[in-house]
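Appendix B. Raw example, untouched.
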Amino acid sequence: MMAIRSLATILTYLIGLCGMIPLFPWLTNFPRVILIIGLIAGLWQDRRGSWQLKPWMQNGAIVPVFIYYLMQFSRANPVQPVVSALAIMLAVRLGGEKSVRHSLQIYVIAIFCLASSSLFDLSPLFLMYLGLLLFMVALALVLLTFQDQDSSMTVSMPELKKILISALLMPVIAVPLLLIFFPIMPRTQFPLWNFLNPANARSSGYTDTVEPGTQSSISESRTLAFRAEMHQLAPTQLYWRATVFNRTDGNKWTRNTQIPSEQPKVAGLTVNQAIFPEPSGVRTLIALDRPVSLDLQRVVRSPDGVFESSRYSARRLSYNAASQISGSVTVRNSINRLFYLQLPDRLPPRIVELAKRIAANGEDDRARVGYLENYFRNGGFRYATKGLATGDRAIEQFLFEKKLGHCEFFASSFALLLRAAGVPCRLVGGYLGGEYNQLGGYYLVSDDKAHVWVEAYIEESGWVRIDPSGFATNSGEVFRPRDPNSLKLRISLALDSLNHTWNRSVIAYDFERQMNIAHHLGSRIQEFNPSKTVQNSVPYLVGCLLLVGVLFAAGRLSLFQSREQRILKKFIRIVEQKFSVSIDKSGSGLFEAASLLNNEYVSDFVTVYANVVYHDRRLTDEEYLRLQLILRNMKGIKS
């Protein structure tokens, strides 16, 4: 036997933890400490069976908390005071007696705590905690109903099992309603939590400038940058274009928005992608190099193949892109060569001398590019993220002394030498590579894949992609993809596939997607052909009828009946065969049959069976075997 009050108390703590755990990482230290103290105090008092913290003490402790966090509340900081106050209220209630009233208060506060955690992070774990919380609250409400009637009530395990089943039915019944209302309920264009608590911009893998020499080492972050749903490509085709740097001032490259007009000619293989970028502080839209079109509204397209959103948005979005991935793009009109040959006012003498040598050894732009490529291939340059040259002479030191650097060093120095040799060029910033998730059918690209390369203009070929980092002697080791058979990687990608499905189906489900679904349904309704639909449905109807027939036959064969029903059915059949007496299949006339027949075996069967079934319990193995033996003896009776 188990005490209802004890079960309700255990559930109350579990409900409190379910609301506390998702919010805990986002709290400041003070609410965290209070939560731990409140939980320990409650457990200690419940174990002793006496509560030192009286309700008036708890209410009095909450008042100054409200006043303190009310004073901290502001437009710039609206969320942290609210969630801190909720956490402390939960701690205070957990530390007191778990009466019916106080338990209900804990359930409400726990639900609010869980909901407030979505202001910081709305991951698939939130759905898990929500489902668990709703189930436990439903069960706890049933137990509290019994506790309110009799606080000393106890239940047996069979009775507890019935309570669990009835409590589980409530959230299970609500699931179909959730699935119906989620797609059709109106929603805002922006999630509510973006207004209450604007997300901090993710530190992007690239910036709006390229400036090698500012630091002697760089750290790599595996923070997710974006996902791209598409078919798998060769690693050499995975250049993701974000922005273009067309102006240089010494070591620093920036983007001049006054870009000369040019008319690119799209030719070659086109690849379609569905891009899901993580919320960030930039307006640049990423796609495979080189993007041709994006289906997002309010997009500004630049002549150099850069797409930008017309306004900053912290919400999670997605868009479809089409890209031409040949690595070169021709233009219909001539380019502004002077714009792409601009140089700093002063160049180091050694760089000027090398540029003159490049120009002298190349009759045209193509030959000059080839000469410089050979210089980098045979120059002993190595790719590195530590021990880098710094200061104003960083590029010069990289080219002639250290010969050690990352992609910004390679691309910046390569482009600077091309311009000094009279070849128009620019830098392109974006990402290189990515992990392909076979389960989800998409590329996972993190910030450590941020990359910079060069586009040089060559007559008749147009803008040609050149990646000077690939000329490093150790480039094969640096840019080698991770082993796809690694167990750690496979587990990571499987978990990310779940997270991506959640983000795509739930978080990114907005008004625009609702309208697309409505438009699609409207088109399908207009195309609806009743006769064709009936004709196509015939195989499915036949299959359903066959399934129903199989289930009916299985039911007749007692495959889905309990052993109590099966053994009663055998008993009735034997009685009808041996004694020509009919008994109701529900077994309601067992005692009457036993009295009428006055047979030892019939009486024994009815006594054992009735003692079990009429007392609302199951047959034990011993009882079942005894009944089987009685039936075998009955079969031996001569008619």
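End of appendix B.
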